[in-house]
Write a structure and sequence with these properties.
mainly alpha; about 350 residues; single chain
Length: about 350
């Protein structure tokens, strides 16, 4: 259930869009000094440490039950390890701003995953329209140019980031286990970061062998620390604060703001440029998200609904057709409901 957004919640939402949008910038800078798997491991390990310390300071217990550990393991895989790895791999081939634009399609995949794997979150008309618009936007992003000669690298980068969107969508279905296990948001976030750290550690040691790499630059180290502490740990705290105060519908608005932040950072700090089709694709994806959100349609319907009929004048005592103390027998017919409403 969504509630009205006040100034505090809008401030938190904008702050979340900055730190999440900054994650693409931080990954681009971190890639200058670290290989992909090392970046992902450091990101989730730093976030796990920060979130675990926050839980301890607040007197919150980390997950210990079998159901809680299983839920965190699944979220660590689907919400952290897989998508973080695919995004950072994709950013080796495409600019950080384009990676953020592709990532904005996550709610589209979340709707499709929920429709396919749940019984109570099926496609509604507005979700269907939004999903189709989102898929059109993704197709425009890739476009014929992405598959032309010399554009295979861009197509691969987009495909990797779309794989991350699919993983995020599946994590939305799996996250129901967190609620069933009775986990509070902050311990759940800490648990999934701990789980993904344990998953990434052996992969990083076996494939990246970071001890054999040259010393990274200060900029890459700073970006890696910011990625873990700001774009992951702090982002989780902001996300759950907004979710508790504004509801899931309002919180989803951040997906419209993150690409803007990432595009600005990529343009200002990294000198990145996007093609016109990338911007058009982002706009179509944005329309799809607005359709899925539904509030625009509800506002239009509310503005077009006929005004309620004025109350009937009070009847004089013992009016014809009525008994003393009762309403008259004749009543005006009920107004016809808005088409499509129950």
């Amino acid at each position: 259930m969504s509630t009205p957004m006040n100034a505090r919640l809008w401030t938190l939402l904008l702050a979340l869009s900055v730190v999440w949008g900054g994650s693409f910038f931080f990954m681009a800078v971190a890639l200058r000094g670290f290989p992909p798997l090392t970046i992902v491991f450091a990101r989730v390990a730093l976030a796990a440490l920060a979130l675990a310390l926050a839980c301890r300071a607040l007197g919150l217990r980390l997950p210990r039950s079998r159901a809680g550990l299983l839920a965190c393991a699944g979220m660590g895989l689907l919400n952290n390890a897989i998508p973080f790895t695919l995004i950072v791999l994709g950013q080796q081939y495409i600019p950080s701003g384009l990676a953020a634009v592709v990532n904005a399609a996550t709610p589209i995949f979340a709707v499709l995953a929920a429709h396919a794997l749940t019984t109570d979150e099926k496609l509604t008309p507005n979700r269907l329209v939004g999903t189709l618009l989102g898929l059109v936007g993704v197709a425009i992003l890739a476009g014929p140019a992405a598959f032309g000669q010399g554009a295979a690298a861009e197509a691969l980068g987009i495909a990797l980031c779309l794989g991350a969107c699919l993983s995020y969508g599946l994590s939305g279905v799996w996250s129901r286990r967190l609620r069933r296990a009775g986990l509070a948001p902050l311990p759940a976030a800490a648990g999934q970061c701990i789980a993904s750290s344990l998953m990434m550690l052996p992969l990083m040691l076996a494939l990246d062998r970071p001890w054999t790499l040259p010393a990274p630059g200060v900029d890459a180290v700073a970006a890696l620390v910011a990625l873990g502490l700001l774009a992951t740990a702090l982002a989780y705290a902001l996300y759950f604060a907004i979710l508790a105060g504004a509801g899931a519908t309002n919180t989803m608005l951040v997906t419209l703001l993150v690409p803007v932040t990432a595009l600005l950072l990529g343009w200002l700090a990294l000198g990145e440029a996007l093609a016109v089709r990338h911007l058009v694709g982002m706009a179509v994806i944005g329309l799809g998200l607005l359709a899925i959100d539904g509030r625009v349609f509800r506002a239009l319907r509310a503005s077009e609904s006929p005004a309620p009929s004025p109350p009937a004048p009070a009847s004089p005592p013992h009016a014809a057709g009525s008994a003393p103390g009762h309403a008259p027998a004749h009543r005006p017919p009920p107004r016809r409901p808005w088409p499509g409403r129950p």
